[in-house]
Amino acid sequence: MKTNIKSLLFAAMMMMGLAQLTNAQGFDPEYVKVTNERARKIVDNMDISDIQKADKVTDYIAKQYRNLSLIHDERDKQIDAAKEMYDGKKEEKKINKAEKKANKSMAKLHKKYLAQLSSELTAEQVDQVKDGMTYGVAPNTYKVYQEMLPDLTQEQKDKIWNWLAEAREHAMDAGSSHAKHAWFGKYKGKITNYLSDLGYDLKQAEKDMFERQKAANNQ
């Protein structure tokens, strides 16, 4: 009986969450303004001479931020409800279900979003949008690795870049700066293990890089 009551309460909370989600689709005008400005800033840093195209891409990016927030908010509501109503394995099961559902929705949205961008932009410009949404972490980190380890082979460079690019795909869908950086942190761990296995001492390599930069600045 207790389990049935919990299930009914959980279902009721989910229905309330869905109702709030529907109402939220109107969005707070201030939030719309923020997402529009964020998107415009990304596009302004790109070489898009066609004003109509620039506006269209800006709209795609802004809507992506808002659509992602709907998925994140609904996931978080379901997780909070699960923590409130259940414990132990039942709670874990409900949380995993909420996360799995959100990940599936984000994957579908991600694919649609990239198709929209690709219909208007070159592959290089699409990458610029991706970097804009992830603070340029992928190319900047890749540059640091090359400066830190100038003797990397092309195969090794490609492997490092592929990991950073994969991290960027995940980070694009994250809901906060912390979550975005966490994805890169996860993949940097993979890169560190990979380079260590190849015999690189990254701490020493970083120290050597700073010494080279210092010497160059003093010239």
Structure, explained:
With 219 residues, this protein is an all-alpha fold. It has helices spanning 2-24, 29-44, 51-85, 88-120, 123-133, 137-148, 154-172, 177-197, 202-217. It is 85% helix and 0% strand. The longest helix is centred in the N-terminal third of the chain and has 35 residues, at 51-85. It is globular. The relative contact order is 0.08. Pfam families: DUF3826. This is DUF3826 domain-containing protein. Residues 1-24 form the signal peptide.
What are its keywords?
single chain, 219 residues, mainly alpha, 9 helices, DUF3826, signal, DUF3826 domain-containing protein
Short description:
85% of the residues lie in helices and 0% in strands.
What's the gyration radius in Å?
A: 22 Å
> Could you describe the largest sheet, including whether it forms a barrel?
none
Please give the domain count. 2
Beta strand count: 0
Low-confidence stretches: 8-24
Structural class: mainly alpha
End-to-end separation:
79 Å
N-to-C SSE series?
Answer: HHHHHHHHH
Structural shape = globular
Q: Portion of residues in helices?
A: over 70%
Instruction: Estimate the strand proportion.
Output: under 5%
Indicate the mean pLDDT: 90
* Total of helices: 9
Organism: Echinicola soli
Protein name: DUF3826 domain-containing protein
InterPro entries: DUF3826 (IPR024284)
Keywords: Signal
